[in-house]
Amino acid sequence: MIKKAKIIGTGSYLPERVLTNQDLEKLVDTSDEWIFTRTGMKERRIARSDEYTSHLGAAAAKKALTRAHLTPEQIDLIIVATITPDFVFPSTACLIQQQLGAKNAAGMDIQAACTGFLYALSVAKAFVESGVYQNILVIAAEKLSSITNYRDRSTCILFGDGAGACVVSSEGKGLVIESVRLGADGEQAELLILPAGGSRQPASQETVAQDLHYIKMAGNEVFKHAVRRMEAACKECLEAAGSSEEKITYLIPHQANLRIIDAIAKRFEHLPEERIFKTVQQYGNTSASSVAIALDELSQKYAVQPEDQILLTAFGGGFTWGAALLKGDA
Ligand code: ACO
């Protein structure tokens, strides 16, 4: 019999320092009013200069392990979703394995931009259901401030740092990962990109002078694709699981922009506003971490019942997109 893959513990970590819209007004030609009305954001968190993605991820992972009642030694695999790894290699998963003392765990990173947490969850689900591994730590961690150009007002207002984590296991009680749908479209790669630092444009004095080590985004275009793809992924995911929007207890969308979240909400007429979980106002867009952080915050506020269904969805660079349906453990 196929074992069910369940989320048996979650955790998150947000750096202490708060960067408000008023702080951004001092850096670029913008205003609290513009940022709030166009994005719904009020503030975001920024990591210290000596605090790296692996530190954020390890802090979130420790909380997830505690809530799952597991020790680091009981973890078989660590998967880290990030676009801001500590290094190109070794992987951030290996660095977190060392920081946690998870000496029996294998480790790898997954890069699917803002959809990374959902891609990582789907890999964990496959490993657990196939019986290859029992306990997997899925971590989404980002230090986006390290690739954000604080002279570019069209992007610097959006991004924040933070990490979310969960333990996926075949044992214990939790949220069953019922179905996951993933998608990608490399035709649109240039619309959301960090141009330099890879093999195509290795770091050089020219790439640094041209600000090519920062996120570049065609915001308007990305916006339209994000709404369309997340809506479709959610509907496909619900259909694959034999569910429907009326049965959803909470929808957790990627926290990229409140207007994107509202546009998706409009396409789900049976899902009341209060069932759409939001953190965008206080944390901004934390890329792969956004859904993972929101899932942890929801888990701390709300005791999941057996009949509950939680739908996650995300969209990001690549383009990549996806949705996952979690169900209370009957
Ligand atoms: N403050 C004031 N004015 C600004 C700012 C700012 N911070 N930024 C842009 N503007 C100006 C522009 O220059 C433009 O002025 P113009 O009309 O004189 O040319 C005007 O505001 C409108 O700009 P738009 O880009 O059309 O504004 P829009 O309403 O589209 O909002 C935003 C921009 C917030 C970036 C939006 O497009 C968005 O959220 N896009 C999607 C982001 C997203 O989903 N990303 C996906 C994941 S991210 C990842 O994978 C890492």
Walkthrough of the structure:
This protein has 330 residues and is of the alpha+beta class. It has 2 domains: 6-173, Thiolase/Chalcone synthase (Peroxisomal Thiolase, Chain A, domain 1); 178-328, Thiolase/Chalcone synthase (Peroxisomal Thiolase, Chain A, domain 1). 33% of the residues lie in helices and 24% in strands. The strands form 3 sheets. Strands 5-4-6-7-1-8-13-12-11 form a 9-stranded mixed beta sheet, sandwiched between helices. Helix 3 packs across helix 4 and helix 8 packs across helix 9. The longest helix has 22 residues, at 219-240. It is globular and about 55 Å long. Acetyl coenzyme *A is lined by residues 30, 34-35, 38-39, 113-114, 153-154, 157, 192, 215, 219-220, 222-223, 226, 256-257, 260, 285, 287, 316-317.
What is the CATH class designation of the largest domain? Alpha Beta
Main sheet specs = 9 strands, mixed
Structural class: alpha+beta
**Strand order of the main beta sheet, please?**
5-4-6-7-1-8-13-12-11
CATH homology group of the largest domain? Thiolase/Chalcone synthase
pLDDT < 50 runs, ≥5 residues: none
Q: Count every beta strand, where a strand is a DSSP E run of 2 or more residues.
A: 13
**What CATH architecture label of the largest domain applies?**
3-Layer(aba) Sandwich
Overall pLDDT score: 97
Shape descriptor reads globular
End-to-end CA span: 17 Å
Bound compounds, please? acetyl coenzyme *A
Q: How much helical structure, as a percent, in the residues?
A: 25-40%
Beta fraction: 15-25%
Number of helical runs? Answer: 11
Give helix and strand order, one letter per element, not per position. Answer: EEHHEHEHEHEHEEEHEHEHHHEE
Supply Rg.
19 Å
CATH topology value of the largest domain:
Peroxisomal Thiolase, Chain A, domain 1
